[in-house]
Amino acid sequence: MSAASLDPGLLAIIVCPQCRGQLAPQADELVCQGECGLAYPVRDGIPVLLVDEARTPA
């Protein structure tokens, strides 16, 4: 399951745990649109919103 297929209601209420920025689905990740730009993985349809698990921006 990709990040784009997550429930729109869920995407409307979750935010980046690092900077509280809005998260946008991109492939198999939720990417922070705020200051940090961290990309959080979505595994088996579940967003993993742990800063230690996030990918840093390139």
Automatic annotation (TrEMBL):
Belongs to the UPF0434 family. This is UPF0434 protein SAMN05421872_101614. Pfam families: Trm112p (PF03966). GO terms for cellular component: cytosol. InterPro entries: Trm112-like. Transmembrane segments: none annotated. It comes from Nocardioides lianchengensis. It comes from the Bacteria. Gene3D superfamilies: 2.20.25.10.
